[in-house]
Design brief:
The complex is a heterodimer of chains A (907) and B (375).
Chain A lengths: L3 E12 L2 E12 L3 E5 L6 H9 L6 E6 L2 E2 L3 H7 L3 E4 L13 H11 L4 H15 L14 H13 L5 E5 L7 H17 L4 E6 L2 H4 L4 E6 L2 E6 L1 H8 L4 H8 L2 H4 L19 E10 L2 E11 L4 E6 L5 H9 L6 E6 L2 E2 L5 H6 E4 L11 H11 L5 H11 L15 H13 L5 E5 L7 H18 L2 E5 L3 H4 L4 E6 L2 E6 L1 H8 L4 H13 L15 H6 L8 H17 L1 H21 L7 E7 L4 H11 L4 E3 L6 H9 L5 E5 L3 H6 L5 E7 L3 H27 L9 E7 L7 H31 L3 H5 L4 H29 L9 H25 L3 H18 L12 H8 L2 H15 L3 H25 L6
Chain B lengths: L1 H19 L2 H21 L9 E5 L4 H9 L9 E2 L5 H6 L5 E5 L3 H6 L5 E7 L3 H27 L7 E7 L6 H31 L2 H6 L5 H31 L8 H25 L3 H17 L12 H7 L3 H14 L4 H33 L1
Parallel strand pairs in B: 1-2, 1-3
Antiparallel strand pairs in B: 3-4
Classes of the chains: A alpha/beta (907), B alpha/beta (375).
Chain lengths: 907, 375
């Protein structure tokens, strides 16, 4: 056993102006469980991120696993020996993948051969008790189960260094206990493994072998729990920690005292009878009955996903109950009755205020929505009381969790509700902050008679409640005062009592035998797999992941395949440049035989459609302005006489120029008609064949003899669809991982940028290709547009084109941070050049200036020539190879640019 | 009532703050209404412009030279001389859209009154140019031949002088059309995306849950999102009309901008309601993006803002009457090009109002449901 798992030397880290770590130097011992303790936002996560190599080092030196983590080479070599589990329940898991699929994905990322992977997965599932649910999607697991699965995923490759960031925050006591038992057994079988854990829970931290207490980016103490206790002469680690804090922070902290409750008259504040909620076939809450008196603090205990939140939501009126009744102060809960809401202050489990508004703006908005009369003083009072004044103009996003929760509580009590419903309000909050929080709850309950209904995972908080109710799988297991419950179970502590209830409900307690996590494959691992520069297996892991996610997201798949078909049909029928039936009217001020003959030539043309004649000038203007007429033919007085006397009369043609294309076409038609008319005129007057049309211009519409728009539009739509949809699909694929947090897997595992990007791209290339095939069939069947040229050239063109367009989406995804930005950026970057500068409407040869450059700089114009060339013009490889080369170059450039934009390390 | 309005106002102000806090979106809005409008207006033209013509002149006579010299910019590029064997390759690669083949002894046959033929090949895959361009070339040839033979016989050219005037746009300049239509298309795109995304964002960030426990109604939430995002989009559109379209592109805007503003507000109301409606059908931003694209493209391309309504099949024209874009495009064309007033456009405005009400009603029903489901 080497002495140290990691050594930090003068490591500092900043986010903009904020300092997260300030010259931290520490040696973390190896082969044991080393804990980083301290409240939220003191730099624990940053320290772990740096240690794991997920975050980019800014200054100082970090040595781990025999090398410098600042060196890219060392990071690459040792990544397979590190496991990193980021903060947040199942944050690096993929919710739509099943338990086994998640594990399989991680196994592949570490290049495990199939047999080893399967054996390992089987081992881990049994030892964590997840084996009954191999096919359950990770998103449907309870919080505790998610964390166990995340741990399995971290352990699948038998790491030497296991880094866990607050793994048990928000997990119920039973699951927490099981989690640590699992780590304990793991350590028995692999004594060399070092575990570094961040925790805000001091009771949990007391079990660790070594601790480093942190505050404000600095270390305030290190050593074994016993040493820290003796240093501070404290009875518990929590007290020790508080004693270690600088004077200023400790200020005002005192032990909580809970005065006895004085019963108040009146109906119960909350009463529920047989409350039930079903989601489809799943019963989330099963006939829960509660009665909470006015001013009582009522605690709700239970594992994640047991129905606590659902019950709370039904009581607030957020969710309608499937069965049963609920009353507040004797009045039935009515989701639509806005008055109900004024009685209730509600704090949801996750932060649900506006991150883009400041603390004060959030409070002001809510005060306004509650129509509070004296909002100003009330907000000032709350900001003072909850210590928010210093943060009034900060955005909650930038504040530590504890302060955000204070803000949520301030917002919840803003309108002085009689009932507070708080869903795990202190999860992840540090001890001092939690005591503060509880102090204000106690004050409200005892002084103002506010009824408080709170759910929690902390046993010391549960012990402070007047009564508690333990829930499991939608049912209430037990109810009573904490002392009653301990007595009833004959337990030592409330935690033991509660775990006892849970174990009873779950049947016999499970204990996986230690030998089941034997390091059976250590030999194979120790031999060391060479870390290849490009490992198809890791690439395949991402491709499989993306495929499964896409297959489960039926809606996205349906849009991707049906959207282009719908558009092809609307465009094929809708876009047409065959202009006919232009509405026109005549304004004949002559009414002679000659004028009528002239006007007849318009009537005979199918290009024009006659509207009732015009009788005066004003009417002509009016009918043109309304858009009723596209054209007016104005014959001046004395037209006939002037014509006969060869005085060259004028014929006025008025066109509606609002739509220039239409006007232009009409001009051409009129000129043609007139030439024809002159010809007939001279035949009629002289009796011999005219000199006027001695030439016959034989127009041949090449490639498309009938001059049908579909032959140009349909190949164009294929070009358009194969850029918009594939780019849009890949655009969210990367950024989605950034938003959900699973991007941590990319940062923390040996997968390379290229493997990651190609894996993400592959399934969409397949989908886009399938989409092309469906469009080609529709083109043939519905529009009669067949492939006249080389199908091989077309198919290679399509393949290269969708490679380029999916890579474009990846590129957009690589540098944006939100899905919205990625979608909007992709839409704008692709729609304009594809629709306007690629030859869909205007031939590329007619473009000039910026339009031409934009067109050439985008793959769509190159593919348009292939699409038109093979469908309509009958071309093959010989004509189109330059385009194929260009598309391949686009694909490579986009991919390379995405790889550059993706950082293997976070900032 | 006053309370409701206050809530709508305040929630809307919040919405504005969120929008202002998102620099990416602001930059994109600025981009589409400036560079976006400019580049589309100047780059993509539907009129025959710069069309490429090749001439296979096997006659080398005075007439054939007259014809070649009459083919001039801007509709055409200066014609290139090519030989018969080069024709196919040039057309296949899309280098030439038109090829004119003047046969040997053309002038001789012409003077002999034998009515010789000229072959004109047009690349029919270039839809916007092939048809009109071929018409132009035919007319150019006819006119040149006419004036040539007229000169030979000592007669004046034409018995009638045809004076063609395009009202509202004397030069049939497509910039006038595309620039304004692009502004309108932008209103559609941004209103749908912003309103829909605002709802999805609230759902993703869990803030909708907070909103639902407040004494606010779904109508208030919806209206606030619509007005706040709408005012930004419509003001940006007006600015774009005045600064980019009128000042930079020098396009005269005929009618009342005030009336246009009123119509644009009503229109954005209906498309924003549509955006929210689409958002209620989708579970994530990714799905929303995929659903919204075909809807937007169809609304923009089939509303009469790209190609004339009358060239679509009747059933499609009828179907597009249900789209607010169709009516707004008609409304805007009447006001901005033809200088029409309320007396002319009220029917479009009326239909737009009805469609808006229907969209809003359906969206509201779905939105109510989705709020309960999301909580």
């Amino acid at each position: 056993m080497t002495a140290e798992a990691a050594v930090f030397q003068a490591v500092s880290h900043r986010y903009g102006k904020a300092t997260a770590l300030d010259e931290v130097s520490v040696a973390i011992p190896a082969g044991c469980v080393a804990g980083l303790i301290g409240p939220d936002g003191v730099g624990k996560s940053t320290l772990l991120g740096l240690l794991s190599g997920v975050k980019r080092r800014q200054s100082g030196r970090i040595m781990a696993l025999g090398g410098d983590m600042g060196s890219a080479r060392h990071r690459r070599d040792c990544r397979a020996r590190i496991a990193y589990m980021p903060q947040g329940l199942g944050r690096n898991l993929y919710p739509s993948l099943s338990v086994v699929e998640n594990l399989d994905f991680f196994g592949r990322l570490f290049s495990q051969p199939a047999a080893e992977r399967q054996a390992r997965i089987a081992d881990l599932l049994v030892s964590t008790g997840l084996d009954p649910y191999p096919d359950r999607p990770a998103g449907k697991l309870s919080g505790g189960m998610k964390q166990k699965l995340a741990l399995c995923c971290a352990l699948i490759h038998e790491p030497d260094l296991l880094i866990l960031d607050e793994p048990t925050t928000g997990v119920d006591p039973l699951s927490r206990r099981q989690f640590w038992e699992l780590i304990g057994r793991m350590r028995v079988s692999r004594p060399g493994m070092s575990v570094v854990v961040a925790s805000a829970d001091m009771e949990e931290a007391a079990q660790f072998h070594w601790l480093a207490a942190m505050n404000a980016g600095r270390l305030i103490a290190t050593g074994s729990p016993a040493k820290i206790l003796s240093q501070t002469r404290a009875a518990s680690l929590e007290e020790a920690f508080i004693a270690l804090l600088p004077e200023a922070q400790r200020q005002g902290h005192k032990a909580l005292v809970i005065p006895p409750r004085v019963p108040r008259p009146g109906p119960p504040a909350i009463e529920a009878t047989g409350l039930t909620k079903r989601f489809g076939g799943f019963t989330a809450v099963d006939h829960v009955s509660l009665r909470i008196e006015t001013g009582e603090i009522f605690g709700f205990l239970g594992s994640n996903g047991c129905g606590k939140s659902t019950t709370m939501k039904m009581l607030t009126g957020l969710l309608p109950a499937s069965e049963g009744t609920a009353t507040l102060f004797g009045q039935p809960v009515d989701a639509h009755d806005l008055r109900t809401r004024k009685h209730i202050g509600y704090m949801s489990q996750s932060f649900s205020l506006y991150g883009e508004l400041t603390v004060r703006q959030n409070l002001v908005l809510d005060a306004q929505l509650f129509d509070l009369p004296e909002a100003g003083p009330r907000i000032a009072e709350l900001m003072e009381h909850y210590g928010l004044a210093a943060f009034a103009d900060s955005r909650p996003d930038s504040l530590p969790l504890g302060i955000r929760q204070r803000l949520q509580l301030a917002v919840a009590v803003l309108h002085r509700p009689g009932i507070l419903i708080l869903d795990e309000p202190t999860s992840g909050v540090d001890p001092i902050e939690r005591d503060r929080f509880w102090q204000s709850l106690i004050d409200m309950s005892r002084q103002d008679g506010v009824t408080i209904f709170i759910s929690t995972h902390f046993m010391n908080e549960a012990a402070r409640c007047d009564r508690i109710s333990a829930m499991n799988a939608g049912k209430v297991l037990a109810e009573g005062s904490p002392a009653d419950l301990i007595r009833a179970r004959g337990a030592r502590t409330l935690e033991d009592a509660f775990i006892g209830y849970l174990e009873d409900a779950a049947g016999q307690p499970r204990k996986g035998p230690v030998e089941q996590i034997a390091p059976a494959h250590a030999a194979a691992r120790a031999a060391g797999r060479p870390n290849r520069v490009f490992d198809p297996g890791r690439c395949r892991a991402y491709a499989l992941l993306e495929t499964i996610e896409l297959r489960r997201d039926r809606m996205r798949l349906a849009f991707a395949l049906l959207g282009p078909i719908v558009m092809m049909i609307t465009f094929g029928f809708g876009i047409s440049f065959d202009i006919e039936h232009l509405a026109y009217a005549v304004f004949d001020q002559d009414q002679s035989r000659q004028s009528r003959t002239l006007l007849q030539s318009f009537e005979g043309s199918h290009y024009f459609l006659a509207a009732p004649p015009i009788t005066d000038e004003a009417q002509m203007q009016r009918r043109l302005v309304t858009g009723e007429l596209a054209m007016v033919v104005e014959v001046p007085p004395d037209f006939g006489r002037d014509l006969l006397n060869a005085r060259t009369p004028e014929l006025g043609i008025w066109l509606d120029g609002a739509m220039p294309f239409r006007a232009e076409t009409a001009r051409g038609y009129v000129t043609g008609l007139m030439l024809q008319f002159f010809n007939e005129l001279s035949v009629g007057s002289t009796g011999r064949q005219a000199r006027l049309a001695p030439v016959n211009v034989a127009v041949r519409f090449v490639y498309n003899p009938d001059f049908l728009s579909v032959f140009a539009i349909v190949p164009g739509v294929i070009m358009l669809m194969l850029v918009l949809i594939p780019a849009m699909m890949t655009a969210v694929s990367v950024v989605q991982e950034k938003e959900s947090g699973s991007i941590a897997n990319f940062h923390a595992t040996p997968v390379t940028r290229l493997e990651f990007l190609l894996g993400k791209q592959a399934p969409y290339v397949v989908v886009a290709f399938a989409s092309f095939l469906s469009l080609a069939v529709i083109a043939r069947v519905l529009f009669g547009v067949a492939i006249a040229g080389s199908p091989g050239a077309l198919l290679s063109g399509v393949l290269l084109y969708v490679l380029a367009t999916t890579a474009l989406g990846l590129l957009m995804s690589s540098f944006t941070r939100t899905q919205l930005a990625a979608i909007v950026a992709t839409a704008i970057v692709s729609i304009v050049p594809a629709a306007n500068f690629s030859g869909l409407l205007t031939p590329v040869s007619a473009l000039s200036g910026a339009g031409r450059v934009l067109g050439l700089a985008f793959p769509a114009s190159w593919f348009q020539e292939i699409s038109i060339g093979t469908f309509t013009k009958g071309l093959g490889f010989a004509d189109l190879w330059p385009n194929l080369v260009a598309l391949a170059v686009f694909a490579l450039i986009f991919l390379a640019a995405s790889a550059i934009a993706m950082n293997k390390q976070e900032r | 009532m006053r309370r409701h309005l206050l809530h709508i106002l305040r929630l809307g102000l919040k919405e504005l703050r969120s929008l202002l806090a998102d620099p990416v979106l602001l930059v994109l809005i600025a981009y589409v209404f400036t560079i976006g409008v400019y580049s589309v207006a100047t780059g993509a033209k539907l009129e025959v412009e710069n069309a490429t013509v090749g001439i296979v002149d096997e006659d080398r006579s005075e007439v054939s030279r007259l014809i070649a010299s009459a083919i001039v910019p801007p509709p055409f590029r200066v014609p290139v001389d090519i030989t018969t064997p080069e024709v196919d390759a040039a057309m296949d690669r899309g280098r030439l859209v038109f090829v004119l083949d003047i046969p040997p002894d053309f002038e001789k046959h012409l003077l002999a009154g034998q009515g010789p033929s000229i072959q004109l090949d047009a690349d029919a895959t270039a839809m916007t140019e092939a048809g009109n361009g071929a018409l132009y070339l035919q007319n150019i040839i006819a006119e040149e031949v006419l004036s040539f033979s007229g000169r030979m016989e000592g007669q004046s050219a034409l018995p009638i002088k045809v004076v063609m005037t395009s009202k509202f746009n004397p030069n049939d300049d497509s910039e006038w059309f595309t620039s304004v239509m692009q502004v309108i298309n932008n209103i559609t795109i941004l209103s749908v995306i912003l309103a829909g995304a605002a709802l999805i964002r609230e759902r993703d960030q869990g803030t909708i849950e907070h909103l639902v426990v407040m004494p606010v109604t779904p109508v208030e939430i919806m209206l606030s999102k619509i007005w706040a995002n709408g005012i930004v989009v419509v003001l940006a559109a007006l600015l774009s009309l005045v600064l980019v379209v009128r000042m930079v592109l020098q396009v005269p805007v005929a009618g009342s901008l005030g009336l246009f503003f009123v119509g644009a507000l009503l229109y954005q109301f209906s498309v924003a309601a549509l955006g929210i409606l689409l958002a209620t059908f989708t579970g994530s931003m990714g799905q929303f993006g995929l659903l919204v694209i075909p809807v937007l493209v169809a609304m923009n391309l089939l509303s009469g803002s790209t190609t004339p309504m009358e060239s679509m099949p009747v059933w499609l024209q009828d179907a597009m009457q249900l789209s607010p874009a169709t009516h707004f495009v008609a409304f805007s064309q009447a006001i901005l090009y033809r200088g029409a007033g309320l007396a002319v456009v009220w029917p479009d405005l009326g239909i737009l109002a009805v469609i808006t009400a229907v969209f809003f009603g359906i969206s509201l029903l779905r939105f109510r449901k989705s709020i309960l489901a999301s909580a």
